[in-house]
Amino acid sequence: MTLFDNIKKVAKERGLSLQSVAVKAGLSKNVIYQYNKGVNPSLETLANIANVLGVTVDYLLGKNDTPEWANDQDTHDLKEFLESNADSMTYGGDDLTQEEKEKLKIAMTQIFWNRHKHD
């Protein structure tokens, strides 16, 4: 699935239109439709969209390999896990860059799914 498809799918699951997602993310109401035409958002924009939808950037990009058994609560738990850990990490007392945070989130997502299994 493409980025556009993933945004559209999650928005539908949340009962949101693409226009309302865009506005809540601080974008013009039709900008998300451009992603279906090959336009790529900035990392900051993508993070804002993911935040509105309650998922991770990796989830929207199809990079988190969410297990088939995972439900909405699991996805929400993952988001909280990442926000409470990756966003507050520093290196040598300096905040991580957005790119470093995203790389860290990818690694943490893999660890989360490996440890967060249903009985």
From TrEMBL:
Keyword Secreted applies: no
InterPro entries, per database record: Cro/C1-type_HTH, Lambda_DNA-bd_dom_sf, TransReg_Diox_bact_type
Record's keyword terms, sorted: DNA-binding
Domain HTH cro/C1-type residue range list: 7-60
Keyword hit for DNA-binding: yes
PANTHER family named among the record's database cross-references: HTH-TYPE TRANSCRIPTIONAL REGULATOR (PTHR46797), METHYLPHOSPHONATE SYNTHASE (PTHR46797:SF1)
Protein name, entry field: Helix-turn-helix domain-containing protein
Species in which this protein is naturally found: Lapidilactobacillus gannanensis
